[in-house]
């Protein structure tokens, strides 16, 4: 059907009018007055709603707790980094206060744990002790990555806590199992974990919880100081030292030596970390180079540039074979003694 020029013009004018009316309606209905992190929204029915994107912690006003002090406290350890991130040690935080701040937020904590090959034997203790010490009273979702789903033990979990088994292929090299974790963490966050306010911790399976690990560990990007090197000079840290690797940390560089066996934070932060470490690991592999301690080396490089917003002391990943140092009042999570030759697919 052919339209005359006059009719076409009328049609165009009418469409423009309609679009104009629609635009006015939408912009009136959802008018946003932005004042930085405070904004006002005028809803479709004309009500005004003020939103505050708060970066401070909100406590219940009825709570009573021990008066904090800035002149007395622990003097045997350093509880802040040079970029002013807290270093969490026993005695530097109030667990009751922190729990009552986070409880009303109804947060969820995802946990990833890998149990490939003989490492399935560690799952039972890991899961059972997590039920006793890890984020008690909060929503916890454990993701177990394994090549033997039928061997994942049935562990009774409290309300609000659940476990999902994810199948992964077996591998003939332990280095590959350890390193592929970053790729799987990246994919898990992209495909299954969407809520931007939730947190994730990625933990080694050959470990047990012995004490509280809870809300004091929450922050944007969280690293754990390795128990083996925290009293050493940085020249002795086992960073990747070959400049051709993307995990390279040069002489005179590096803050602390962090664990590959425990790290975490907000989903979007950990996603960025996992994605970067994975792509650097793969780019290195294409050039025939594997960093000294696989993903742990890439994580250390990442944390040198992207400073963690909270650092957990070695209380959060000790090793059973190490006698406890005096500054470690409590061991919260610790690697069990294991015979590498017996449990790894290669030596
Ligand atoms: C250190 C790190 C570990 C990783 C590794 C270097 C700590 C305490 N540990 O531990 O995180 O950075 O050095 O690659 O920081 N796994 C399996 N099946 C295997 C082998 C490994 O499932 O056959 C998984 C398992 O979750 C294990 C993790 O990979 O906990 C790390 O491997 P590891 O425990 O053998 O490495 P380890 O103890 O030398």
Describe what this molecule looks like in 3D.
- The protein is of the alpha/beta class.
- It has eight helices and 14 strands.
- It has helices spanning 5-29, 95-102, 123-133, 174-179, 181-191, 267-286, 294-305, 340-343, and strands at residues 31-35, 38-42, 48-52, 87-88, 108-115, 139-146, 161-167, 199-203, 207-209, 221-225, 258-266, 310-312, 318-319, 333-335.
- The strands form three sheets. The chain has an eight-stranded mixed sheet with strand order 4-12-10-11-8-5-6-7.
- The radius of gyration is 25 Å and the shape is globular.
- Residues 29-34 have low confidence and may be disordered.
- Helix 5 (181-191) packs across helix 6 and helix 6 crosses helix 7.
- Helix 3 (123-133) links the parallel strand 5 and strand 6 (139-146).
- It starts with a helix and ends with a helix.
- The protein binds uridine-diphosphate-N-acetylgalactosamine.
- Uridine-diphosphate-N-acetylgalactosamine binds at residues 114-117, 119, 174, 177-178, 204-206, 226, 259-261, 293-296, 317, 335, 344-345.
- It is found in: Membrane.
- InterPro entries: Glyco_trans_6, Nucleotide-diphossugar_trans.
- UDP-N-acetyl-alpha-D-galactosamine binds at residues 114-116, 119, 204-206.
- Belongs to the glycosyltransferase 6 family.
- One of its GO terms (molecular function) is hexosyltransferase activity.
């Amino acid at each position: 059907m052919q339209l005359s020029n006059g009719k076409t013009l009328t049609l165009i004018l009418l469409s423009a009018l309609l679009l104009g009316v629609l635009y006015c309606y939408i912009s009136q209905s959802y008018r946003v007055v932005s004042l930085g992190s405070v904004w006002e929204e005028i809803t479709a029915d004309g009500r005004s709603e003020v939103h505050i994107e708060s970066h401070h912690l909100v406590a219940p006003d009825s709570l009573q707790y021990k008066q904090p002090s800035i002149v007395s406290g622990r003097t045997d350890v350093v509880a802040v980094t040079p970029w002013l991130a807290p270093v969490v040690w026993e005695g530097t935080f109030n667990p009751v206060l922190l729990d009552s701040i986070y409880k009303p937020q109804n947060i969820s904590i995802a946990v990833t744990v890998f149990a490939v090959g003989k490492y399935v034997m560690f799952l039972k203790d890991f899961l059972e002790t997590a039920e006793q010490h890890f984020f008690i009273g909060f929503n916890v979702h454990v993701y177990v990555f394994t090549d033997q789903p039928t061997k994942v033990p049935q562990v009774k979990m409290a309300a609000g806590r659940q476990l999902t088994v994810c199948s992964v292929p077996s591998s003939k090299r332990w280095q590959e199992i350890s390193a592929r974790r970053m790729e799987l963490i990246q994919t898990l966050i992209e495909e299954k974990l969407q809520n931007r306010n939730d947190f994730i911790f990625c933990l080694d399976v050959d470990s047990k919880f012995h004490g509280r690990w809870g809300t004091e560990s929450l922050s944007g990007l969280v690293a754990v100081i390795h128990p083996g090197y925290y009293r050493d000079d940085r020249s002795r840290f086992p960073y990747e030292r070959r400049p051709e690797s993307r995990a390279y940390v040069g002489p005179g560089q590096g803050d602390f030596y962090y664990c590959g066996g425990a790290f975490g934070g907000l989903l979007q932060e950990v996603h960025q970390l996992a994605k970067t470490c994975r792509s650097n690991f793969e780019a290195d592999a294409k050039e025939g180079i594997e960093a000294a301690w696989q993903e742990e080396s890439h994580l250390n490089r990442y944390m040198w540039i992207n400073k963690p917003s909270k650092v957990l002391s070695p209380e959060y990943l000790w090793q059973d074979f190490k006698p406890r140092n005096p500054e470690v009042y409590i061991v919260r999570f610790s690697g069990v003694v294991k015979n590498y030759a017996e449990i790894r697919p290669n030596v």
